[in-house]
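User: Protein folding is very new to me. Would you mind checking the protein record under this note? It all follows right here:
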Amino acid sequence: MKRKLGWFGLGFAGAELAAAKLPPLVCVPAAAFLVWLVFWNHTRHRDMAIPALGALCGLAWFFVFSLVWVQPVRALAGQTVCCTAVIETDAEASYSDSRLRGTLLLTEIDGKPAHIRVQCASFPGEAAGERFSATFALRELLDNKYRLSRNSKGVYLQAEYQGGYRALDASRGVRFALYRLRGRWSAILRRWLPKRLDGMEAAMLLADKSRLDDTTQQAFRTAGVSHLLAVSGLHLALLCGLLGFGRRWKFYKPLIILRGAVALFYVLLTGAPVSVLRAGSVLAVALAGDFLLLPVDLLTSTGFAAVLLGLQNAYAPCDIGFQLSFCAVLGVQAAAVLTRRETQAAGENAPLQTLCRLAEPIQTAALASLATLPVLVAHGMAASLVGILCNLLVVWMLQPALQLGILLLVLSAVPLLLPLVNLVGLVLSLWLRLMLWLVERCAAMPFASVYLPQRYTLFVLAVLGALAVCFWHARRLRLYLPAAALCTAVAVGMGVWMQRDVVQLTLVGSSGNPCVVCVQNGKAVVLFRGGESNLTAVNNFLAGRTREAPGLLVDLRAKPTQLDFTAAEIVTMKNEPEFAARTVLDGLTLDLYHNKSTSLAVLGVGNRHIAAGAGSIELAAPLCVDVLCAPGSWSETVRPDAVLYTSASPRWLVQAEGCELYYGEDTPGLTLRPDRSMIWEEAQTVAVQ
């Protein structure tokens, strides 16, 4: 097998990811199977033994890492301790005034040195790098979709601030100095660039998304080029490529060392996310090979980076940036192999060689998008049908945008060069405006973003992958494409048929007062509560899930404020009678109740009724419903069988006697088939009161 280290590393990372997601009782027989596979393939098919050996090593290291480093930290759960904490760079404003939320580094616990990262939803502070002592109650992380992502960043506990705050001297760590430098440079970009464009440039160049406009971010996501706004290997390669000249010069090797130093500085400046660490490791291997005049292979370097990151933190493969980065590299590698074979088949035929060169960027974009599709679906994200086109149109524009941004920062440091700064700022503004215009045009195309059913899509992709392995072993890869196309067509047809008339109800927006979004057959109804942030969350959620703007938006608020709704019809409950009924979507019923400043909407899906309201409504007679969605206050006249909510500690919890409680931290919901099944999504049973 060629590229043994590459396949070993991929097996190593894959085993760590599986061990993090699967229960231990499943991992034990999996380890026994891998041992058998290694020894059996070592004598018969040595090529297959390499990834199996990597998987076995990854599984063993995961349990060693968990036993030695993770379990002692988790053993602190349930204790209330006095700590010295440092605010990490991911801290952001909390919902409470003068509070932050994010990651804290505990450097001292009850007078003993420590080095433990915890997640805290609310704590005093103003900026990253501040140190303080306080009392915290330590708890285990909630078992939700964010848990593994937090584990990948070294966070294994959550902390609740109890009081006793005492400010200490700020940390003098290098990462905080670089964080403040990044903030100053971001302020310079904001000074010379227009609004919206400054946030784009700061995100692409400095990994600072604090000023990134929501509409801009959504446009990039819908067009399938959101990776341009997240600093990754592409950005690092483009920046370090600026120093890739002079291969025949005498000082070429010192220039390699300079490139390595620049890469290290940039990795630290951006906060060292996993995607950048992966790219930095690959670049370090490439620079070492270049220094020693040895050839470098991308897959081998990627496998080496996977082992390094997995050794540093066995949960690193759980990070979505890690998964997207490595899958994209595999797609690029597959495109390179395909291009090489096409070039060999073209031979000396000039027209065919030209066709191969034209097809190369299209194949690279297509295979990279296809390779990252399982990751997007697994994390509940929408796929873009215009991603290939948009990548071809705007990816090449990234390097000039980065170069102009660096030039702007350099020139702004010299007061005498202010006229040049104005000129560079103007050119960069025009360049970014063109880039944003292309992205928005692609995002506006029909079906630009498509939300795929998670479990069903992953099952179909697994079947297609198994077919690829079977055809590869049978040496009939040429027959795989028509077989895969037929299976995909059948799967799409079955998926459309199975999803017909299915109703998806989801809580979207702030945890204390979320909206209820109902989607059926590509059409939506929104029961709206909250403000501007909830409206943005609803629009982002609906991207890819519906073919058009919501057909109906019911504003349940007692004091409606002016918001830019895009729904076809808007019903303001404040102006409605005490009771009204209507038919919505495809045969669903919607009953609207209004009493003084309180409102209630009851959606009928077959023989089930789901309610959402604003305020504690009083009705003439008790109303029984199957599910009550995230009530802000409890009403004695609304009697639900189950309550779905997102607030961690709702005030009405003691009043929900006799109800089944389902809690979800982010976008929990229901999937209903009229007069048939009801499935809870992203929600877990809390208790039966």
Remarks:
- The chain has five domains: 4-74, 80-172, 173-224+400-446, 454-499, 503-688.
